[in-house]
Amino acid sequence: MNDARWYKGAIIYGLHVKAFLDSNADGVGDFRGLIDKLDYLTDLGVDCVYTREYDDELFLIVNNLSRFAQPVELDLRRYDGRVPVELFGETRFPPIGEPPYFLTPGPHSFYWFRLEQPAG
Asked: Which CATH number is 102's domain given?
């Protein structure tokens, strides 16, 4: 997407995960509950969902609203050493190091990562 103002036509939904959906019946909304309702949010016309932190966990959400694959270079230096773990398949990506961090989301796709502290 070449237009730096893509967000002007997008529906961006900021939500508080703890208040959204409780998937394990502990009385508090959780990320699994959010993931389980992604189809519902899409049906509502939501283009992008974001959150920043949940309890002591840190998440990175990268969305590609284009109909083409889009390589991105992210400056994640403040998260140096953390390991991005994709939430759906628990796939571990290379640790974050010197910027830039490269990703290439496919058309109309997204990555949802939990940024884990390095082991040790």
From this structure: 2.60.40.1180
